[in-house]
């Protein structure tokens, strides 16, 4: 007499329970998006439009008579694999505004895949755009892909910065594995002016120890300036002496100034960037939130 196998609704067969026990659980991922624009209102620049979603929040503190200063806040506290974060910012004709971040962005250990950040910046004729986020801290095992595209029109001016710090050396942290790719693309009136990409993977510290790569640096930055006065800005940078512990160089590439900084730690890097940014910003100083 054959016995029929009876499966009670909602009960898992043994092989199904084994599979469920060994499967890697799917983790919740962060998504953040912001769209912001600035416009000229009378003699001053002001916020035009603002949209924010997910973990990306935008605040505009009152900072006196200077142009608007938009502060990006990542409420997720950091980024890891599978997280997506994007900013689309526009400066309308003759406007002047700065975008920065509330704190250093943190890239945490990834199980697989990358955190992805996409920034699209549009600067109209005679507008002045300053993109000055605080440093990105890459922890051991972190993986980041970041792309920035800048569309300039007419005589628009753009100042941009991206700075990296490897872990927190004061706490004994090392970055022995990981990956990051940071790319820039700058166009003016639809014509490509500049394209750049920094990519490191594997034992990042060991690679930066090489004399021809980082010469032992644990913090570094890329500074860009695009404008009709690029030659004058490049000459201004060459007159700055950031300090004996900093490796620094700059060049003017047909309307785009590229400057690189290598430093032994994040504090040294910020100290070197401070006078550079103050001069390039015409005495405006650093974004207010950098001081908090």
From TrEMBL:
It comes from the Bacteria. GO terms for molecular function: nickel cation binding. Keywords: Chaperone, Cytoplasm, Nickel insertion. One of its GO terms (cellular component) is cytoplasm. The keyword Chaperone applies. InterPro entries: UreD. It is found in: Cytoplasm. It holds the Pfam family UreD. UreD, UreF and UreG form a complex that acts as a GTP-hydrolysis-dependent molecular chaperone, activating the urease apoprotein by helping to assemble the nickel containing metallocenter of UreC. The UreE protein probably delivers the nickel. Belongs to the UreD family. Required for maturation of urease via the functional incorporation of the urease nickel metallocenter. This is Urease accessory protein UreD. The lineage of its organism: Bacteria, Pseudomonadati, Pseudomonadota, Alphaproteobacteria, Hyphomicrobiales.
């Amino acid at each position: 007499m054959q016995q029929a196998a009876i499966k009670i609704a909602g009960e898992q067969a043994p092989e199904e329970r084994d599979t469920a026990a060994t499967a890697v659980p799917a983790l919740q991922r962060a998504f953040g998006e912001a769209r912001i624009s600035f416009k000229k209102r009378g003699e001053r620049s002001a916020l035009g439009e603002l949209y924010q979603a997910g973990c990306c929040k935008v605040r505009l503190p009152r900072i006196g008579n200077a142009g608007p200063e938009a502060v990006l806040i990542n409420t997720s506290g950091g980024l890891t694999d599978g997280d997506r974060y994007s900013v689309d910012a526009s400066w309308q004709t003759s406007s002047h505004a700065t975008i920065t971040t509330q704190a250093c962005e943190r890239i945490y250990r990834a199980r697989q895949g990358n955190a992805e950040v996409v920034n699209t910046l549009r600067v109209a004729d005679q507008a002045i755009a300053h993109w000055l986020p605080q440093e990105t801290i890459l922890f051991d095992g972190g993986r980041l892909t970041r792309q920035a595209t800048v569309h300039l029109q007419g005589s628009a001016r753009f100042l941009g910065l991206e700075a990296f710090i490897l872990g927190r050396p004061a706490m004994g942290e090392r970055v022995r594995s990981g990956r990051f790719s940071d790319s820039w693309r700058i166009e003016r009136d639809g014509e490509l002016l500049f394209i750049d990409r920094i990519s490191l993977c594997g034992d990042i510290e060991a690679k930066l120890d090489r004399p021809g790569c980082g010469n032992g640096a644990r913090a570094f930055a890329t500074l860009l300036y695009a404008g009709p006065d690029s030659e004058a800005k490049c000459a201004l940078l060459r007159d700055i002496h950031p300090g004996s512990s900093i490796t620094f160089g700059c060049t003017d590439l047909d309307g785009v100034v590229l400057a690189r900084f290598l430093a032994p730690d994040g504090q040294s890097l910020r100290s070197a960037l401070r006078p550079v940014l103050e001069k390039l910003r015409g005495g405006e100083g650093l974004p207010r939130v950098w001081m908090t």
